[in-house]
Amino acid sequence: MEAKAHPNADKLLVLKVDTGESQKEIVAGIARHYNPEDLLNKRIVIVDNLEPATIRGVISNGMLLAAQDGEKLSLIVPERPVASGSKVQ
Known about the structure:
Layout (H helix, E strand, L loop, with lengths): L1 E4 L7 E6 L4 E6 L7 H4 L6 E2 L5 E3 L2 E3 L2 E2 L1 E4 L2 E4 L14
Antiparallel strand pairs: 1-2, 2-3, 4-7, 5-6, 8-9
């Protein structure tokens, strides 16, 4: 839904995501690999059942999943359109 640079860290982005049941803010260390505008309306896979954590002064309510191969980072995304909040099985 929204993506912006973290106010206190160059490597972090702050994402506002729709989980199907609510909207959550997630802090992710992907700023060197993705521009905020490239993430708008993108379907991503997140871990939604984590305790909130404060990361450089911003509360993160989940974690996105990505794969890293050397210097390359790739977000884990559904291969077909799915509804927000769909469960990973």
